[in-house]
Design goal:
Immunoglobulin-like, 10 strands
Length: about 130
């Protein structure tokens, strides 16, 4: 415990990728994290789109956690998610929300990332209701 993370390999690899791309000019290294691009609401589901991930999103850890969805009452509920195969789209829904109007991801203190690009870079937290 404490302020020093036990897993030092992952941030080390990410920093090495940044150095290869920005310091040594390796243009074949994709160092960008997928970024929230847009959301579309369809019936009881939100479809969240991401950019900066040309090879799609990574589902090796299973369905991403940390998503929440809200209806017109602005009450957020933990959401179920599904990554559409080989795309940058995530379907988000919760049984409590019949008409979604907002989605947020990793929106809290000390939330562990569970959604990544195929390059291993994590998706940053975001919210659609600002």
């Amino acid at each position: 415990s404490g302020i020093h993370p036990s897993n030092k390999q992952t941030p080390g690899e990410r920093l090495a990728m940044q150095a290869l791309a920005h310091t040594y000019g390796h243009d074949k290294v994709n160092v960008q994290s997928p970024r929230y691009a847009s959301v579309e609401f369809q019936d009881t589901m939100a479809i969240v789109s991401f950019d900066r991930s040309p090879r799609g999103l990574d589902a090796t850890l299973g369905a991403p956690s940390g998503f929440e969805i809200a209806g017109p009452d602005s009450v957020f509920y933990p959401a179920k998610t599904h990554i559409r195969w080989n795309t940058n789209l995530v379907e988000v829904s919760a049984p409590e929300v019949k008409k979604p109007v907002a989605v947020r991801y990793a929106f809290g203190n000390c939330v562990e990332a569970s959604l990544f690009g195929q390059n291993g870079m994590p998706v940053s937290s975001f919210r659609t209701d600002f």
